[in-house]
Amino acid sequence: MLNHTANLPHYTQLDAADELSSFRELFYIPTTAAGKEVIYLCGNSLGLQPKTVQNYITQELNDWRTLGVEGHLKAKNAWYYYHHFLTDATARLVGALPAEVVVMNTLTVNLHLLMASFYRPTPHRYKILIEAPAFPSDKYAVASQAQWHGFNPDNAIVEISPQPGQHYLHTNQILQTINQIGNNLALVLIGGVNYYSGQFFDIPAITQAAHSVGAVAAFDLAHAAGNVPLQLHDWGVDFAAWCSYKYLNSGPGGVSGVFIHEKHANNPQLPRLAGWWGNDEKTRFEMKPQFVPQPGAAGWQLSNAQILPMAAHRASLEIFDQAGIHNLRHKSIQLTGYLEQLLHQLNQRLHQPAFTIITPANPARRGCQLSLLINNNNGKAVFDHLTHAGVIADWRNPNVIRVAPTPLYNTFEEVYTFVQLFEQALTANS
Hints:
This protein is α/β, with parallel strands linked by helices. The chain has helices spanning 11-16, 53-67, 71-74, 87-94, 107-118, 136-148, 153-156, 171-181, 203-212, 232-235, 262-265, 307-323, 325-349, 379-388, 412-428, and strands spanning 39-40, 101-104, 127-131, 157-160, 185-191, 216-220, 239-242, 256-260, 355-357, 370-374, 391-392, 394-396, 400-403. It has 15 helices and 13 strands. Helix 9 (203-212) links the parallel strand 5 and strand 6 (216-220). The longest helix has 25 residues, at 325-349. The radius of gyration is 22 Å and the shape is globular.
C-alpha cells in the first residue's frame, strides 16, 4: 500500500506503466455539452458502452430482418443456443464450472427463482440473514419470500448492521451472528460487495459458517461480478446471481447471471419454478407435457433467451476475456489505492477533515469503489458541484458520494483531476 504521507508517483508515470491503458479505447466516454470527456466514476451503477456492442446487436437485428422466425436455428449465432455463447466466459469470470452458470432474466427475478428452490423454510428453520444496508431490492425480495411462506418478515429477516460508530461489518461479527441464529437460520443472502460501503465480504468464510449451522449460503454479486475475482465453485457457494449493467458494461437493464453449485445444479429432483427454456434442449420443440430439466444451472431457465441484451453482454464478456479479471484486479488495487492516498492528503490539507472514507482500508476487503461520507450537511451541494464540473459519480442518501474508478476505462490522470475538483467543491461548499 502507498503511504499517504509520502510523495506519490505522478499520474503520468502511472498511466505510462499501465498495461491495460489501451482498453479505454474500446469504450465510448460520455462528453459534456462543450464536447469534453467527462470523468466517469460511476461504473458501479452503469458501466460504459463497449464500441463493439452495436455490431453485436446489429448482427441479430439483421438476422431477424432477413430470417424472421428461422433465426432461431439459422441465424449466424442461432438464437436457440444463444445462452451457450456466454457460458464459458461467464464461468471464467466468477470461478465456476461451465455447467454451474447460465445467463437469463434479470437480477431480482433470478433471486426469486433461486429462493423458490433454496429457501424451503420449516417452522423452526426459517430465518434469513442479510447485511444492512442491503440493496433495497434484495431486502424487498427476501421479505416477500418470508411473507409468501407465512412468516412475519420482521421476525424472519435478520439484518446485521455495523457496530455503533463504524461504517462496515467485520467478518467475525457476521460469523458470530450466523452461529447465534444457529438451527433457526435457513438462508444467508449477502451482497458480495456492499453497494453502499463498497465492502468486499469474506465469501468463503461466510459460506463455511452458514454450512456449519445447516443453512444455505447465497450471494448477490451485482457489485462483485467484473469487479473482484471470484471462486464460487471452490468456495462452495450454494447459489449466486448478479446483474450485467454495472461493472460488466452490458447496458441498462441488462441480463443477469446465475451460479448454482454442481452439487445442486445436477439434482433434477430439487424443487424449482419451471419454464420451457429450462427443458431438455433435445426435446424442447417437441412440446412434450412433462418438464425434463437440462442438467446444470441452465435447467432453471424459463423463457426464450433475451437475444438483444445478450448480444450486448457478449460484446462485454469478450473484453473481459481479453483483459483477464486478475489483471483488472491488479490495476484496480493500484487505481483505487492512488485515489485513497490522494484523498488522505486532501483531508490533511484542509483545516478540518471534510469527509470520511467509509470503505475498508484493506484492499483485499474492497473493490473499485470508495464511499465518501461528507462531514457536514452540504454533501449534495458538493456532489452537484462535481457534476457541474464534469464528474459523473453517484449520490446516496443521507450524505455519501460513491466514487468507482474502473480499471477497464479510467485513468490515473482522471483520479488525480477528480481529487482537485473535489477539493474545489468542498471549499466552495464548506
